Amino acid sequence: MIVEIGHFALILALVVAFAQGTVPLIGAHRGDALWMAAARPAALTQAVLVAMAFGALMHAYVTSDFSVLNVINNSHSTKPLIYKISGVWGNHEGSMLLWVLILAVFGAAVAVFGRHLPPGLSARALSVQALIAFGFLLFILFTSNPFERVALAPADGRDLNPLLQDPGLAFHPPFLYLGYVGFSVAFSFAIAALLEGRVDAAWARWVRPWTLAAWTFLTAGIGLGSWWAYYELGWGGWWYWDPVENASFMPWLAGTALLHSAVVVEKRDTLKGWTIFLAIVAFSLSLLGTFLVRSGVLTSVHAFAVDPARGVFILVLLLVAIGGSFALFAWRGPALMPGGLFRPVSREGALLLNNLLLATATAVILLGTLYPLFIDAVGGAKVSVGPPFFDSVFVPLMVPLVAALAVGPLLPWKRGDLAGALGRLKLAFVLAAAAVVGIWFVFDRGSVLAVLGLGLAAWLAVGVVVEIAGRIHLLGIAPVASLRRLLGLPRAAWGMTLAHFGLAVLVAGVTASSAWKVEKIQTMRPGDTVEVAGYTYRFEGARDVQGPNYAATRGRFTVTRDGEPFVVLEPEKRLYPVQQMPTTEAAIRSTFLGDLYAVIGDAEGNEGGFVTRLYFNPLVPWIWAGILLMVAGGVASLSDRRHRVGAPGRRPLTTEAASAKA
User: Fold this and answer.
1) Is the pTM of this model over 0.70?
2) Hey, which CATH number is domain 1-165, 3.40.50, 1.20.1640, 1.20.120, 3.30.70?
């Protein structure tokens, strides 16, 4: 009965979404306050109905209701509770329901926290949100119904993909979807602004917190996914430029550009058309990621390779949403007033450079991701675009971006002095040069680019410290006064500092782990030893262990350094009997300078030998630390009271804007 209630709630949500997507939009066009006012209760009702449907599906999973086809295909009675819950979104149908739930929750949040928005803008934005939800609810109900029953319920289910039975994958999809779907709010505000014919500082102030929230969630989601791939897949890496990885990375790049351009609109009332364009692009790339993962056109450990017919439905939604929004932008965008002027050397100029580099990086990743699909679609030979291509085009774009991040915040608005800003960064230059020289002579004289990469990370890290030191007049006034200024800094300033410093830490971790990773692959028997980066691994043998719903072979390595015991590592090779699928569980010991990483593979011979892979991954913990700092920066900025007190009042429409609106 609960399953039927959930299905009925989903049908009612479709009806409410249609009403919410049409009535307030017509009311805004006609200036009818009553019709516009229907948007808020409709948004709240839609969120409640979708939440009921999602709760019904979760109940079916938790209680192992094997009369539901979705539960049969993705659950098992012996599965731990956390994986029964995460199994709800560990499949195509359930993940789409989660997608729509988050979309409805964001719409309800706009309705609750946007009570001070102009009625027309609010009604249009909530209508656009509802139209997106309407399309995806249609998709779920007609092609991906999660509540489909079977005539004869089996005794047990077929279990969830063992790769997804992991804490990292339990939390990765919700955070990723919160980021994907979060950009829908910026998209809805952009479409509403185009329909209204007006973009100003108040609009940017309303859009920024929603964009910042989406960016923060997406950063966390990408970090969790990378962390999962690092320790679960047993290959010793954390990023492979997999097409589905790219599908999440592209909206992040576009969203990062959108965050920075929205600041220019708010502070200087310029780059308005470009900011609208970025809002459309960020969400369009999120929709593209949804299509790539669910269309069946990609093969990936991250993808739901399902019936391609579903991909056709999503492709139609994609064409309507993206094509329609860009057509509207082409029609109404030129009518937007350009705003204030600025010199190339200025804070605006630095943010524009940031945007151009991020947009170019997004474009080349999009090209590399879709090119093999285009070639295959036209009957060409199979081609593969992998890490060498992406590394060769992405890294050169990021070098000037990271270098400019230290300079941009030191430039004033409208007109700046580049020489003066660089003069304030003398300490950063000296310390970065010292880092380069020290690493070159003491550590490695062969990897020139890696050494320069660490120098670039040091340049940005010290530049961030110099910028905040300038804000508090460190060494220029009494220490107590500097401390008082430090404690009084806006949280948005702390957020920028944490995010930029986190990026510097991330760059250092990425550079070192890519350039200096040590890998040893061999067959080891009990008593054998292998030297890896100054650590001695001794294989003590392996034994069989039984997990809650799997059987495993657990290896044991004792690791010593300079003859002294350091750590014991116990990697596992698991077999899930229901799906007869093996997984690898790496054993990892993190230190400040890197990770000791051990993997046990298949048995070799009759003498207790096993294939083993042993790694030392330099500074990999810095990658996760950098991501955490960036997420902390996003949270700190979101907590700034300026995002909670509302936007400044709007100025009256100019004659040009009024005529454009008409």
Assistant:
1) yes
2) 1.20.120
